[in-house]
Amino acid sequence: MAALKSLVDFQLKNAQELIQVLSDEKHAITSRNSQEIEKCAHRKIALINQLQTTDQRIGVHPDIDSLQTDDELAKTVKRIQLLVDDCKQENLINGEALQRAQLSFNKLNNLMQQTQGKLGMTYDAGGQTKNVTTLGTNLKA
């Protein structure tokens, strides 16, 4: 049963770490720090994989029934489940924030492209494209 307790404790540690990574990710999103967002995403994936692997190991453990019969283990399992539910909610919120940030970026990018489009583009005698900043705006007559 000591091996099962250590697996459950490890699961709790990973769930706590995941909630912290999600908090860090939220901060990175709000500060628009793309390198930190990417770092958090990699860490988040690693922790989720670790949680799944540990869960599989717990699922086939010969003392699995003690998760319900042992009060201490049952409390720890309940705590893990609550943390994982919190993680799911935080991840949803972060995903929505990332979508809003992406939408803002796309709008800004489109605006920039429209502004650049006003510069004008034409072709030279060799058929190469050429940007002309005065296309039709410097006529004197």
User: What's the count of strands?
Assistant: 2
Main β sheet profile: 2 strands, antiparallel
Residue ranges: pLDDT <50 for 5 or more in a row? Answer: none
Structural class: mainly alpha
- What average pLDDT do the residues reach? 86
Number of domains: 1
CATH class: Mainly Alpha
**SSE string:** HHHHEE
* CATH-assigned homologous superfamily: FlgN-like
**What's the helical proportion of residues?**
over 70%
Radius of gyration: 27 Å
Number of helices: 4
Name the CATH architecture.
Up-down Bundle
Question: How would you describe the shape?
Answer: elongated
Question: Which strand order does the major sheet show?
Answer: 1-2
The CATH topology assignment is Methane Monooxygenase Hydroxylase, Chain G, domain 1
Q: How widely separated are the two ends? A: 94 Å
Q: Hey, roughly how much beta strand do the residues contain?
A: under 5%
InterPro entries: FlgN-like, FlgN-like_sf
Function: Required for the efficient initiation of filament assembly.
Keywords: Bacterial flagellum biogenesis
Protein name: Molecular chaperone
